[in-house]
């Protein structure tokens, strides 16, 4: 395996675990997880930073996570979770799950990295019951043209350094193409980071009728 592959496989999951677990991100995770209920599918489960934030109304969580290293990092969190959690797949673009099965879905900083984000969203749409909700926070294309220009310029570097993560994906457009109607969405910049890295979209989207 080359150095880039080794870095992405063995080092990057540890970096993501620390970066995504900071207190500011936790507050946003709490907001995303609020209101979840029933059977939930979470794509990009990572090292389990959302564990402990699921409301009591959640019956179970099925986790989709491609990284074995990230899943190992999640073990202690999963073991102490009050909600049953099971890893069921590696690829959000091809979910090994039945149609119309889940009440809700969660995606926290995941759509930036999935090679075909629309395919993943269409899979979530397929496995959600009609009217099921996707709770999300994603970084992506900023609302300001000046910031967008920097995102486009730096996207290639970001992809190489951050395991395929993209700075400039249009989150609202992706959701629409994936079969979702946005119920609410806030766009904002995280404090303390350059705007080209910190353009966030947080909200919920409803799975349209099949």
TrEMBL record:
A molecular function GO annotation: methyltransferase activity
Quote the Pfam families the UniProt record gives.
Methyltransf_11 (PF08241)
Q: Which UniProt keywords apply?
A: Methyltransferase, Transferase
Transferase among keywords: yes
Q: Which InterPro entries match?
A: Methyltransf_11, SAM-dependent_MTases_sf, Thiol_S-MT
The answer to whether keyword Methyltransferase applies is yes
Query: What name has this protein been given in UniProt?
Result: Class I SAM-dependent methyltransferase
Source organism per entry reads: Jatrophihabitans cynanchi
